[in-house]
C-alpha cells in the first residue's frame, strides 16, 4: 500500500473514531453492560473501519496489478527490442561472413593457376633429337607431345601429368609452372597404344593433370586428344577437349 492511501485510511479511521467518541461521551450514550452488548458495540464501531481498509486494500491491489501489467508490458517491449537487435546482429554477422567468404573466394580465384594444353603433335617415326628435346630417353615408338601453358596469375605447384588411352601412366612430375610459362610434355605411346593407332588410324588420348595452387588447394584437369592418321606420315589432332579443373 502506498503512502497516500495509508494516510487517507488512517485519517478517515481517526475521524470516525473521534465521531464515535464524541457521540458516546457527549450524547449520553449508555455503556454496554454485557459481553454481547460490548461485542455489538465494537462490531458497530469497527465494521465500517474494516470495510474501509478492505476497500483500500482492493484499490491498492488493483493499482499494483496495473503497475505490474505495465511493468510486464515494458519488459515484453524490452525483450522484443533485444530480440530485434539480436536478429539484426545475426543478419549483420551473416553479411560479414558472406563478405568474408566472397573475399576468400575472390582471393582463391585470383591465385588459381589456369593450365591450358596446346600445340599437340605426334611423331610416328621420331628421331633421337626429338627425344632430346623432350628430355626423355629415345625409343622407336610414336612420340606424342603437347605444351602445358599456365595462363593464370600465380604459379602451379607439384604438377603430375598422367596420360594414356586405356590405362593412365605417369608421364612427368614438375615442381612448378610459373604464371605465363609453358612446358613441353612428351610421352612415347605404349606398344598396345601404337597397335591401336596403326589398326584403327585413330585413338583418344587422355591427359590427367593434378596440381596445386600456392595455398595448397588441389586441382585436377582432364583433357582429351583425338588423334587421327590421315596418311602414312601425317597425323591430324582434332576435337581437343578440356574439362574444367576440379578442386
Beta-strand residue percentage: 25-35%
Radius of gyration: 50 Å
| Rounded mean pLDDT score | 79
Task: Fill in the CATH topology of the largest domain.
Answer: Immunoglobulin-like
Main beta sheet, described? 5 strands, antiparallel
- Overall 3D shape: rod-shaped
Which labels suit this protein?
about 250 residues, 8 strands, 2 domains, 4 helices, single chain, alpha+beta, rod-shaped, Immunoglobulin-like
What is the topological layout?
Layout: H1 3-26, H2 35-110, E1 115-123, H3 128-133, E2 143-150, E3 156-164, E4 169-177, E5 182-188, H4 191-200, E6 202-212, E7 218-229, E8 235-246
Antiparallel strand pairs: 1-2, 2-5, 3-4, 3-6, 6-7, 7-8
Helix pairs in contact: 1-2
Q: Could you explain the architecture of this structure?
A:
With 247 residues, the chain is of the alpha+beta class. The protein has two domains: 3-108; 114-246, Immunoglobulins (Immunoglobulin-like, Sandwich). It has helices at residues 3-26, 35-110, 128-133, 191-200, and strands spanning 115-123, 143-150, 156-164, 169-177, 182-188, 202-212, 218-229, 235-246. A hairpin with a 5-residue loop joins strand 7 and strand 8. Helix 1 packs antiparallel against helix 2. The radius of gyration is 50 Å and the shape is rod-shaped.
